[in-house]
UniProtKB/TrEMBL annotation:
It comes from Luedemannella helvata. It holds the Pfam family Response_reg. This is Response regulator. Residues 5-130 form the Response regulatory domain. SUPFAM superfamilies: CheY-like.
Amino acid sequence: MEPIDILLVEDDPVEVLLAREAFEDFKLRNHVVALGDGRAALAYLNRTGPYRDVRLPGLILLDLNLPGLDGRELLERLAADPVLAAIPVVVLTSSLAERDILRARRLRVTDYMIKPVDFHRIVDVVRHVEQLGFAVLRTAATG
């Protein structure tokens, strides 16, 4: 089975670099697509414009504080779309605001991580999501 693609929606280039380095350090073979704003992420996920031929990611790592369409609004749009709502989302943020945490829970976010991010936890999430994908494929193939 091929590793899942990961969509990292983060506007801070340093955070993107840290994420890429962490994936290399942990020897993850996942293809990481990094986009710096919510509008580009939505176009990517809807496979419109320059993203017409992309494969949907198996996991979204999402910063809440983005320019333009912020992560909170993007979460709402993901939750409203039955196909996109099935993609696990891990929120990466500096926000400790209770309203953000409660909203994320309401929208069934897989995990909520406060920056600086513990990449050990992200690696665990990636591995868990991949195992779920394997289990789904295996069940479909045997059932």
